[in-house]
Amino acid sequence: MTGLSRRGVFGSAALAVSLFAASIVSQAHADTYKWITFKPQGAGDAQSISTQWFVDEFKKRTDGKHEIEVFWGGSVAKTREIPESLAAGVGDFGDIVTPYFPDKFPLNNAVGFFIPQPKSTIEISAMMEEWHKKYPQFGQELESQNLKAIGYRPLESYGLLCTSAVRSAADLKGKRIRTYGFAYPALVEALGATPVSIATSEAYEALERNILDCTPIGPALAHGWKYDEVAKYYIEIPLGASFGHLIAMNLDSYNGMDEETRAVVDQLGKDYSKAYADELDKTIAMVRAGWPEKGVEVIQFPKEELTAVISDERIQNVRKEWIDRAKAAGVPADEIVSELSF
User: Fold this and answer.
1) Would you tell me which CATH number, out of the four given (3.30.70.20, 3.40.190.170, 3.40.50.300, 3.40.1190.20), belongs to the domain 32-155+243-285?
2) Cα–Cα dist 214/210, whole Å
3) What's the pTM?
4) Chain center to CA of 37
5) 284, 122 in Cβ contact below 8 A?
6) Which residue spans of the chain are classified as CATH 3.40.190.170?
């Protein structure tokens, strides 16, 4: 064997060793992140579909270097356990149902204090993203609990699903309407109806047995929970999109990512809003198209009869509670209030 041949063999061997070592290093830096959620994988709704979209895009945009494993259906943490579990590092990503924690995340629950309001799902997403950019207090509220918001998932625009026709505010007098949080009970009382606190999972039976007359909900959720089997009147009363979920990360996990991977996550969080809203719109269109066959009547409610009660003291007191908290945190609340006004 000539010297040149030996050098060629040794050079090839060295290259092979180098490539193998590089592969080992690459594998060592590959990460599988955990996403904890209450949503069942087979739900087939906008949330489950867009969650899978995020997971697939993350792997694709990191060239397969990193991936996310989703622990579906509350298998790791139930809905009300997710914030603490995520903060403790049980998961890296997770879905936080913000309205369930008004005291834990008061700033990030802003929209929930301003019902009714005129904004759509995609508009609320954009507003939340902008508030987090403009007002550091929104992010600091989460960071104090070792959490980081990377995306926003507002629910659909809500109306009322009722067991009898409601064509005006007069028809709401005395109705028993499911409520939760702070703003809905105040609004229902201002409209002359009776607020009733009933869990989402129990509302189907309550509507069926006439314990409830109405529930605030959107078409996609009404169909998903099968409420439209027992309540056949959907009232187009402009309650606005509810702010539903933060897509959050464990702050240590986020900070522990390399700069390139963090940039992927940041961009995915922005892109997610449209992917989710598109899926939601598809579902809503499908549900509405099927309602005539199911015997569901859609009724337009006079918008002016809704907006006329916003000045009611009960509604204003709820809004003032958030305004006072925001001002105490140094947030210019008046700017946000104006964005949520009709």
Assistant:
1) 3.40.190.170
2) 9
3) 0.86
4) 12
5) no
6) 32-155+243-285
Residue 155 near residue 220 (C-beta atoms within 8 A): no
Q: Which two tokens stand for residue 85?
A: 């579990």
CATH 3.40.190.10 range(s) for the chain read 157-241+296-315
Rounded (10°) angle between helices 313-328 and 183-190: 160
User: How high does pLDDT run on average in the chain?
Assistant: 92
Other Cβ atoms within 10 Å of 171 Cβ, number: 17
CB atoms within 10 A of CB 259: 6
pLDDT of 29 = 63
Judge whether 239 and 158 are in contact, CB under 8 Å.
Answer: yes
Helix (H, G, I), strand (E, B) or coil at 98: helix
46 pLDDT exceeds 60?
Answer: yes
CATH number for domain 157-241+296-315, candidates 3.90.640.10, 3.40.190.10, 3.40.50.300, 3.40.30.10: 3.40.190.10
Distance CA 292, CA 68 (A): 41
The set of residues, in sequence order, having a beta carbon less than 8 Å from that of 103 and lying 6+ positions away, is none
Q: What is the pLDDT of residues 261-285, one digit of tens each?
A: 999 999 999 999 999 999 999 999 9
Cβ 50 vs Cβ 41: under 8 Å:
no
Complete edge-to-edge strand list for the sheet that includes strand 147-153: 66-71, 31-36, 93-97, 245-250, 147-153
User: Reduced to 3 states, what is the DSSP secondary structure of residue 341?
Assistant: coil
Distances (CA, A) of 206 to 65, 196, 199, 201, 202: 49, 10, 10, 10, 6
Q: Specify the pLDDT at position 341.
A: 95
Over residues 299-319, mean pLDDT: 98
Q: How far is CA 333 from CA 101, 117, 225, in A?
A: 20, 15, 35
Sign of CA dihedral 83, 86, 90, 94: positive
